[in-house]
Write a structure and sequence with these properties.
543 residues, alpha+beta, Methylamine Dehydrogenase, Chain H, four-stranded antiparallel sheet, 18 strands, flat
Length: 543
């Protein structure tokens, strides 16, 4: 019996042992964050025309070879945030690896030789390829198909085949993409002549000229982004580094009047990136744009350029009879945190439809002044199904810590609807410091307040909250209050048990196959001993 117990305990102990060795290199599972030490890649060209690829799993301290790419490679780019996926630009094709370079597959056929490659993070999941004669291509399915990026401004003033010789994506805002363009000129011998640098602010749909290149300048083969400056790009060449920055231009102002809303939206974003306050009035003249997306982007651009200049026009717009314009004005006032607009925003919150109420609540949450928080708390007295009450709960949650004190104070207000609403809001916020006030609310004269306080304490799920709920469950004179407290206690206990079970199952699921084998052998042997031993005890002595 002792031996059997020893084997059982020894087998279970193996589950907690550290892994001595695992067969094969570790590969992250799909979606696993590898940000701490992302895979790095380097390559070298081989005499037979392939590219030897190496990968580092420890930030560049050590390297080991992975699968070769079966053609000469000009660059290897990993997907930021999921470096197991990498793209290699060959002489004639794009190659893709989904397993950290352990294997490579060829993308869909390209219509022209690739000259540049840019890859977004896994979230955006886009791949851009600049080609020798067919302009810019984009894939949203990891190279399974390619679509041409067609924009008049992207390829304007060129004759002959359009080349895209360099690409870059701003890591701080992946909607901002840069491209260096060129065209083939010449009579008997074609020569690649640079055209300029273009920028897109909407992920490659619309393009604007950032810089034009003089005739005879060398083609741009590399672009580098600048941290904290989304409208700036650097192009190195043999003479040094050249910096290009977007500036306010007639082209941009004309684009704000374009018939296509997508063009107006992209132009407004770029205007804001220039940082030129001279454009503020031009933007304000267009804040009533008929398209909701373009109009909101125009307001955002104006607010970012000059918050002082836009406050009064936005307050005037808030008084409009048009609900879309009201929502747009509330959005802008929230962006600039205009404390002077609390009163009209509160009126829109209480009187508006679901859309305007939501924007007004979010604006008050962004302002975060005591007056703004009080304006948010007011609609808690409204019916549960009202748009204002729903919006105010969302706004209070967004306001966060500045709302906790006023909500706790509201638990002792005169209106039971306000007290119940404050308890509900605190339940969504889950502030530990409100435990005492919510515990006191379990003795509120109004049943609805008591029930809501019990629910909120269940959301906090702290020891003090459980203690208050246990007391209410055992001593309250009201059956509904006892039931609410018991339900809250059960909810917190269920969460705790479920979490422990999930944790145990997760640990067992992660146990390597070798360790599971040892556990199984130990348990089988122990079971055999337990079966054999009793039989031996029952066997008669002496034969």
């Amino acid at each position: 019996m002792v031996l059997a117990l020893t084997l059982i305990l020894g087998g279970l102990a193996l589950a907690g042992m550290p892994i001595v060795s695992d067969a094969g290199p570790r590969q992250p599972a799909s979606g696993e964050a590898n940000a701490a030490r992302p895979f790095l890649y380097r390559w070298s060209l081989q005499a037979e025309g392939s590219a030897r690829v190496e990968r580092s799993d420890d930030g560049g301290s050590t390297w080991h070879g992975v699968a070769a790419v079966p053609e000469r490679v000009a660059e290897v780019t990993a997907v930021r945030g999921f470096e197991s996926r990498a793209y290699a630009r060959g002489e004639d094709a794009i190659w893709i690896s989904e397993d950290g370079g352990e294997s490579w597959s060829r993308s869909a056929e390209l219509p022209s030789r690739p000259l540049a490659l840019a890859v977004t993070s896994e979230k955006a999941d886009s791949v851009f390829v600049g080609t020798e004669s067919m302009g810019l291509l984009r894939s949203n399915d990891r190279g399974a198909s390619w679509q041409p990026v067609d924009s008049a401004d992207f390829s304007r003033n060129h004759v002959g085949a359009l080349a895209v010789t360099a690409l870059a994506i701003n890591p701080d805002d992946e909607q901002v993409v840069y491209a260096a363009t060129a065209t083939w000129l010449g009579t008997s011998t074609a020569r690649l002549t640079p055209l300029g640098i273009s920028v897109s602010t909407d992920g490659g749909r619309e393009w604007f000229s950032l810089a034009s290149m003089p005739l005879g300048a060398p083609a741009i083969t590399s672009l580098r982004t600048v941290a904290g400056a989304p409208a700036t790009v650097v192009a190195p060449d043999a003479e040094g580094l050249h910096t290009y920055r977007a500036a306010l231009s007639d082209e941009l102002l004309v684009a704000l009047e374009d018939t296509r809303p997508v063009r107006r939206t992209a132009a407004a974003r770029l205007v804001a990136m220039t940082g030129d306050r001279a454009a503020t009035q031009e933007l304000l003249r267009r804040i009533t744009d008929t398209d909701p997306i373009a109009g909101q982007q125009i307001v955002e651009a104006a607010a970012r350029l000059d918050s002082n200049a836009v406050a009064e026009p936005l307050r005037s717009l808030l008084a409009s009879d048009d609900e879309m314009l009201q929502a747009r004005a509330a959005y802008g006032l929230g962006l600039i945190g205009d404390a002077g607009s609390v009163e009209p925003l509160a009126k829109v919150l209480e009187d508006g439809n679901p859309m305007t109420a939501r924007y007004a609540a979010e604006a008050l949450a962004a302002i975060r002044s005591p007056e703004a928080i009080e304006a948010l708390i007011g609609p808690l007295t409204m019916d549960n199904g009202s748009a204002a009450r729903h919006a105010t709960l969302v706004g209070l949650e967004q306001a966060g810590r500045p709302a906790i004190g006023p909500l706790a104070a509201a638990l002792s207000g005169d209106d039971p609807r306000l007290r119940a609403g404050a308890a509900e809001a605190l339940g969504w916020l889950r502030p530990v410091e409100a435990t005492a006030a919510l515990s006191q609310a379990l003795s509120d004269p109004d049943r609805g307040v008591r029930i809501q306080a019990a629910w909120a304490l269940g959301e906090l799920a702290t020891d003090d909250a459980r203690g208050a709920l246990s007391l209410a469950a055992s001593s309250s004179d009201d059956e509904a209050t006892r039931a609410a407290a018991e339900s809250a206690i059960a909810r917190t206990a269920g969460t705790s048990t479920s979490g422990a079970s999930t944790n145990l199952l997760g640990r067992l699921a992660e146990t390597p196959v070798l360790r599971w084998t040892l556990i199984a052998l130990a348990l089988l042997l122990a079971g055999a001993l337990l079966i054999i031993r009793p039989e031996a005890q029952l066997r008669p002595h002496g034969g």
